[in-house]
Design goal:
By secondary structure, this protein is α/β, with parallel strands linked by helices. The protein has a single domain (about 1-185), classed as Class I glutamine amidotransferase (GATase) domain (Rossmann fold, 3-Layer(aba) Sandwich), CATH 3.40.50. It has 8 helices and 11 strands. Helix 1 runs parallel beside helix 5 (about 155-170) and helix 5 (about 155-170) packs antiparallel against helix 6.
Length: about 210
C-alpha cells in the first residue's frame, strides 16, 4: 500500500505528520513524502523542515494521496503548479485522495470537489466555495464513490487517517492504530471551534495571527 504525502513550502506540519503517524503503522504501508522537487520544505512558520524523498513524477500511482494545508496552499491554487498535473494522472488510480485543512482548496482548484460537500479550516470556507465545493463544518467529509475524503483544520487529519485506516483495512485495524498512537483526546479547554471559542478568544487569535503574518 503506497501512501504519498505532498509537501510544499509553508505547509502546516501536523497536517502531514498527523496522518503519517497513523497510516505508516498499517500493515504493508509505505509512506513517501513527495514534492515538485526532492529535499527540504520549510513549514508555515519556518521553524521546521520536512524532507521530500521523491518528486511527484517519481510516485505516479500511489494508493493514497494526502494533501496537507497551510498558508503555502495559496501558491498551489494556480493550475500551472506541478501538483495539479500529478493529481490529474494519479487520482484516477488511487483508492483514496484526501486532504487536511486547506489542502482541500488544492483539490477544489483541481476540480476534484466540484459540486461536492467538503471541509477545510473554518477561516477558508468562502475560498472553498469559490472553487466549486460546498463548505461544511463537519470534521471529516467522505465521498466514497468519488474516493475523496477531506478533513477540517490541522488536528482533524488524525481523525481522517483513522477513518481511512478502517476503509483500507478494517475497524479493528483503525482502533489498533488509535491505541498505538494513544489518541485519546482530553483537552483542558473546550475552544476548538468558532462556536465554542467566543469573542475574547477569537480576538486574541486574530492578534496572534497578525503577528505571524
Amino acid at each position: 500500500m503506497d501512501i504519498a504525502v505532498a509537501l510544499f513550502d509553508r505547509l502546516t506540519a501536523l497536517d502531514a505528520i498527523g496522518p503519517y503517524e497513523t497510516l505508516q503503522r498499517l500493515p504493508g504501508a509505505t509512506v513517501t513524502f513527495v514534492g515538485e522537487r526532492t529535499g527540504e520544505y520549510r513549514t508555515d512558520n519556518g521553524f521546521l523542515g520536512l524532507l521530500a524523498d521523491a518528486t511527484f513524477s517519481e510516485v505516479p500511482n500511489p494508493d493514497v494521496i494526502v494533501v496537507p494545508g497551510g498558508v503555502g496552499t495559496n501558491d498551489l491554487m494556480d493550475r500551472s503548479h506541478p501538483i495539479h498535473a500529478w493529481l490529474d494522472t494519479a487520482h484516477p488510480g488511487t483508492k483514496f485522495t484526501t486532504s487536511v485543512c486547506t489542502g482541500s482548496l488544492v483539490l477544489a482548484a483541481n476540480g476534484l470537489l466540484d459540486g461536492l460537500e467538503a471541509t477545510t479550516h473554518w477561516s477558508t470556507y468562502s475560498t472553498l466555495e469559490q472553487h466549486g465545493a460546498t463548505a461544511t463544518g463537519s470534521r471529516v467529509v467522505e465521498h466514497l464513490d468519488e474516493r475523496i475524503i477531506t478533513a477540517a483544520g490541522v488536528s482533524s487529519g488524525i481523525d481522517m487517517a483513522l477513518r481511512l485506516s478502517e476503509l483500507l483495512v478494517d475497524a479493528t485495524a483503525a482502533k489498533a492504530m488509535q491505541l498505538m498512537i494513544e489518541y485519546d483526546p482530553q483537552p483542558p479547554f473546550d475552544a476548538g471551534s468558532v462556536e465554542k471559542a467566543g469573542d475574547e478568544v477569537m480576538t486574541r487569535l486574530i492578534e496572534y495571527a497578525a503577528d505571524k503574518s
